[in-house]
Amino acid sequence: MEPGFKSLFVYKLSYDFAMEIFNISKTFLKEEKYSITDQIRRSSRSVCANIEEGYRKRIYPKLFIKKLTDSDGECSETSIWLDFSKDCNYISIEQHKKLIRTCDRIGKLLGYMIKNPQKNTGKK
User: Is 114 a domain residue?
Assistant: First the structure.
């Protein structure tokens, strides 16, 4: 098992999620480069980046929770961009459902960590 934040299931899931979105977004129209494409890539990558930042600050529970909350917010933003992607016919309904399920799962995992920071910070 990898040490540190890379061993967290939620990190691995969110990283794979960001990579899946990156690969799917390669097919988006060129005129969407500075709107949906950049936005969905940025927000999905920020999910795992904020998990890593939070993990590094886990000895400070309030900072840890803040970064996890930021990560959850980025995950929510990504779900909106997924809705736009589906409604603009850039992704299929099946792709959308699968990605939204993953997004929801990440959100639930982050929610648990936010409500139970002592499990990762060692502080009560």
Answer: yes
pLDDT in tens, 59-116: 899 999 999 999 999 999 999 999 999 999 999 999 999 999 999 999 999 999 999 8
What is the tens place of the pLDDT at every residue in 37-59?
Answer: 999 999 999 999 999 999 998 88
Q: What is the pTM of this model?
A: 0.90
* Residue labelled with tokens 């009560």: 124
Contacts 24+ apart (CB under 8 A), 29-37: 29/90, 32/88, 32/90, 36/81, 36/84, 36/85, 36/88, 36/90
Q: Is residue 95 part of a domain?
A: yes
Q: Containing domain of residue 38, as a range?
A: 4-19+32-118
Number of domains comprising the chain:
1
* Alpha-carbon distances, residue 69 vs 7, 30, 34, 65, 115 (angstroms): 20, 32, 26, 6, 10
Please name the helix (run of DSSP H) or strand (run of DSSP E) that holds residue 68, with its range, or none. Answer: helix 61-87
Q: What CATH number does the domain containing 80 carry? A: 1.20.1440.60
Spatial contact of 42 and 25, defined as CB atoms under 8 Å apart:
no
